[in-house]
Design brief:
By secondary structure, the protein is α+β, with helices and mostly antiparallel strands. It is built from 12 helices and 16 strands. Strand 8 (255-258) and strand 9 form a beta hairpin. The protein starts with 10 loop residues before the first strand and ends with a helix.
Length: 470
């Protein structure tokens, strides 16, 4: 910086560019000038306006799969019915409190030149009537809200009556003679669903005393769970118009199961069995999200529930209990993929092909002890923790699935450009390098490892085999 006289302008030079090349010229007054307070505060309304516009625009999204204000089942409707008057009450209280605050500020405002620190507004401390009023009024409001809230909690905890002797909610032949039970198990970072199809509950007689009791349920899940149950992954299927009772738990850390259009959320806690229920009024796909921070891929641990009409659900169940077909050597691509799968994937995944009982006493080489059961993988619309759509034409985030198309999912329709075709590119990327698609820690046995050794031909064979699992 150079100066010739007190009245001359100062010049700021760029030290890095030499003393003869000024970065820019300005006056000392400009450098030292304080920010314009008026302009600073005048920008606040503009910023608030922009923020309000952004929030309003975000609330106007058409596709809102996690919108709890659009219930699609009696349990979710019951919660919505309770919350609507509470939101109104909260709005009234908010307006009153803010209104009174602003009113007092306006009433007692003074010009800066008239300010007197001893000139205080009228003090109401010690006003017995006011203090009683603003103590009793909130207490009464909270008591009323608590009464209806507690009553609603008990209502949401109600479960179906136990089936009569000799009856089973779901039978091994695919028939049903009672309401459906389902077990939901959270693990890093996907959901496992189990259906009791042999009428003996979700657990087995571990200690061999002839009775399935609490002592058996306290064993680790990989030991205590009934090996004969139907097991699916990532996407549950339920019948419409029927309350489905859930038993929720976890294999590793705390997760939280939440299908907002069917019911509220319920935590899944390792070592504990919590009950919950869901019910859908109409056929469709209902999405949810894990709402308890559970590690690396918490933000990518979604859930999907497909509701089918009674007859369609029975048909789905009848198909699910069948073993997977084993390709023959005549089907070269599928058989090659089958052999690759046996070599690379069977240490974690289970496929019940009717020949080898992989599920019995099986524990995956993972920290949780389980990986997604792939026996009927091709009948699901999502995979990888429900974050990817398995078929083109079916959006993993869309809960308006055309149920009529649900049973038409196929790669054998000779139409590679059809609306319902396997998303081969996505599936191949997942198999080749799953940790690159979803945050995982395979080195700690949490998540699927990468298989960089696979060639394009290998991937083609694996996809061909997976497509047969319908």
């Amino acid at each position: 910086m150079t100066s010739r006289s007190n009245d001359e302008k100062f010049t700021i030079l760029s030290p890095g560019s030499g003393w003869h090349k000024p970065l820019r010229s300005t006056t000392l007054e400009k450098v030292m000038r304080a920010p314009n307070a008026t302009s600073r505060f005048s920008s606040i309304p503009r910023r608030l306006g922009i923020a309000g516009t952004v929030l309003f625009a975000a609330a106007c999204a058409e596709d809102k799969p996690l919108n709890t204000f659009e219930p699609r089942g009696p349990r979710a409707e019951s919660i919505d019915t309770l919350m609507q008057p509470i939101w109104i009450l909260m709005g009234v209280v908010f307006v009153l409190v803010i209104g009174v605050t602003i009113g007092l500020a306006v009433k007692n405002r003074v010009a800066p030149e008239d300010y007197d620190e001893n000139d205080l507004p009228e003090q109401v401390h010690g006003n017995f009537r006011l203090e009683i009023m603003w103590t009793i009024a909130p207490a009464v409001l909270l008591a009323i809200v608590s009464w209806f809230t507690v009553d609603k909690i008990w209502e949401l905890e109600e479960t179906n009556a136990d089936p009569a002797a000799g009856e089973c909610r779901t039978n091994a032949d695919g028939s049903r003679s009672g309401d459906l039970d389902m077990m939901v198990i959270g693990q890093q970072w996907w959901w496992e669903y189990r259906y009791d199809i042999d009428c003996d509950g979700f657990f087995q007689d571990v200690d061999g005393d002839g009775d399935i009791d609490d002592a058996d349920r306290e064993w680790p899940l990989n030991i205590a769970l009934d090996d004969d149950d139907l097991v699916v992954a990532n996407q549950a299927v339920i019948p419409t118009g029927e309350q489905v009772d859930l038993v929720v738990t976890s294999r590793d850390v705390i997760h939280s199961y939440w299908i907002p259009r069917l019911n509220g959320k319920r935590d899944t806690v390792p070592g504990r069995l919590h009950t919950w229920s869901i019910e859908a009024d109409a056929a469709g796909e209902y999405n949810g999200w894990c709402t308890e921070y559970c590690g690396l891929s918490h933000a990518r641990m979604r859930m999907s529930v497909v509701a089918l009409d009674g007859a369609e659900f029975d048909a789905w169940l009848d198909n699910q209990i069948l073993p997977a077909e084993v390709p023959t050597e005549a089907d070269e691509d599928e058989f090659a993929g089958y052999q690759l799968f046996q070599q690379l994937c069977m240490s974690c995944h289970v496929i019940d092909d009717g020949e080898l009982d992989y599920a019995e006493d099986f524990e995956a080489e993972l920290a949780a002890g389980a990986a997604p059961n792939l026996t009927h993988l091709a009948t699901r619309t999502v995979f990888a923790g429900a974050i990817y759509s398995q078929y083109a034409g079916v959006d993993a985030d869309d809960d308006d699935l055309d149920i009529g198309e649900y049973f038409e999912l196929s790669v054998d329709d000779n139409d590679p450009d059809g609306d319902l075709r396997l998303n081969e590119a996505i599936i191949k990327r997942w198999i080749l390098n799953a940790p690159d698609q979803k945050a995982m820690a395979p080195e700690d046995r949490r998540g699927m490892p990468a298989f960089p050794q696979l060639t394009e031909e290998d991937l083609d064979h694996l996809v061909a085999y997976l497509a047969t699992l319908d």
